[in-house]
Amino acid sequence: MEPLRRPLSPCSSRPSSPRSPPCETSVSVGIEAVLDQLKIKAMKMGFEFNIMVVGQSGLGKSTMVNTLFKSKVWKSSLPGLATPTPQTLQLHSVTHVIEEKGVKLKLTVTDTPGFGDQINNDKCLRPLDIEFLQRLCRTVNVVPVIARADSLTIEEREAFRSRIQEDLRNHCIDVYPQKCFDEDINDRILNSKIRERIPFAVVGADREHLVNGRCVLGRKTKWGIVEVENMAHCEFPLLRDLLIRSHLQDLKDITHNVHYENYRVVRLNESHLLPRGPGWVNLAPASTQQLTTPAPLKVRRRVQEDPKDEF
């Protein structure tokens, strides 16, 4: 009598092929623990975020950064204290480590003192702004804002926003979030709503005031309290959500995978001081189209019989 044969399961009846659906196991092997590993590693290492604020003196850049992270990240000059206008544009950076619920963020803020202080601003993008943004949007993620929006009426604010949006379109200034980086329909819907509100009309404040029995972050005027986190007063919550709560990792990914790679290609192609030895690589200059659309580099290798001839 033949021994009883155990029927083979569908998963073991034949070797799996790329076209066959994946076989789900009934016993956990610990794949879901990868997320816990990533979380533990991220909690240990922390995160890094670099931000540069650009604008005229007196627009409240320092206050906006402090309000954004609810910390004394940047020290502003004392009110009424006259400070000399910088003759040259020198970048000034400070770095702080901010911790929230065990998550550490290494924040570096870069200021541009004296940028455009000697140019009149007639409530539109100035030629300096246009040229600056055209160059900058190819290197970093640009998020424009309307500073001190409480000095404008709602009608003036919307008219100003429309003029800025028109200038951005006419001069091909692609600010964040860029349409070409929308990965799916959900990203497209979310980012389209954000693009409609850019530039955000914001108000910065680092003091709390008592309003209807509760403490709110705002700025006191003779007409009342301008609440920073009240959407009826300004759009600061939209800016904070974009930079921190919803798009911070996307900002870092685009900076690393797109902007930095473009910058690296440009620097490699412009460099004529590479050390030359056996098998050195000669990079041909990149065209304008290549700089905007990254493509694999085509290199030409030259083998030198005698390296001494190159020095």
Automatic annotation (TrEMBL):
Q: Respond yes or no to whether keyword Nucleotide-binding is given for this record.
A: yes
Give start-end positions of Low complexity composition bias: 6-17
Q: Is Membrane tagged as a keyword?
A: no
Q: Which UniProt keywords apply?
A: GTP-binding, Nucleotide-binding
The Septin-type G domain is annotated at: 1-270
- MF (Gene Ontology): GTP binding
Q: Taxonomically, which superkingdom?
A: Eukaryota
InterPro entries assigned: G_SEPTIN_dom, P-loop_NTPase, Septin
Give positions of region: Disordered.
1-25
The record's comment on protein family reads:
Belongs to the TRAFAC class TrmE-Era-EngA-EngB-Septin-like GTPase superfamily. Septin GTPase family.
Family annotation (PANTHER family): SEPTIN
Q: What is this protein called?
A: Septin 12
